[in-house]
Amino acid sequence: MMKPLQLISPNTKIPFLTYRMIAFVVSGVLMATSIVLALVFGLNYGIDFRGGTLIEIQDKTGPADIGKIRDKLSNLGLGDVQIQEFGGPRDVLIRISQQPGGDEVQQQVITRVKEVIGDTVVYRRVEVVGPKVSAELITSGITAVIAAIFAVLIYIWFRFEWQFSIGAVSALVHDVVITIGMFSALQLEFNLSIIAAILTIVGYSLNDTVVVFDRVREELRRYKTMELSALLNLAINRTLSRTIMTSVTTLLALLSLYIFGGEVIRGFTFAMIWGVVIGTYSSIFIASPILLLLKVKRDWSRTGASPANNSAS
Question: Architecture of domain 52-129 in CATH?
Answer without folding.
Answer: 2-Layer Sandwich (3.30)
